[in-house]
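Subject: sequence -> structure tokens, single chain

Hey, anyone have a minute? Need the predicted structure for the following. Not urgent.
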Amino acid sequence: KNYAIQIGVLNNIENILGGGDRLSFVGTNIADFIQIGMINSDVPVQCGFINGQNDGYFQAGAINYGEKNSFQLGLLNACVDSKIQIALVNGGGKGILQIGLFNVQENGVQVGLFNLTPGKENFKGKTSFQIGLLNYNPRSYIPWMPLVNWDMGKEE
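Reply:
Had a minute. Here:
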């Protein structure tokens, strides 16, 4: 168990808050909350090349993945339930805001070059708003729109 700091090539700690192990490759674990390293796994705050977590607050890295996350900053972000994503490519289920060149998300605001809202059945009633060069939303009366598009409540 780690209640302080680990610095090393491969750091592994038992999660003192419950759950499995926390792994950091070439980096630092600070208690059970922060990881700074090349590859990080399952703590709330992560800075590294590749970051992965189930339930966290912040990820900054080249590749970020999370099940539930408040903020992701990187080159490629993927999250099932994310509040804010900023990257070249963002992918998510539900969220509040995506800023990037290519954004894919079921609902929320998307700002980018190309924005896509797939419009799956379980997200009916959710709203989305897109600002970009080309925007796609199947729930809009005109699914493909340049500059601006939004969910107009159209049935698929």
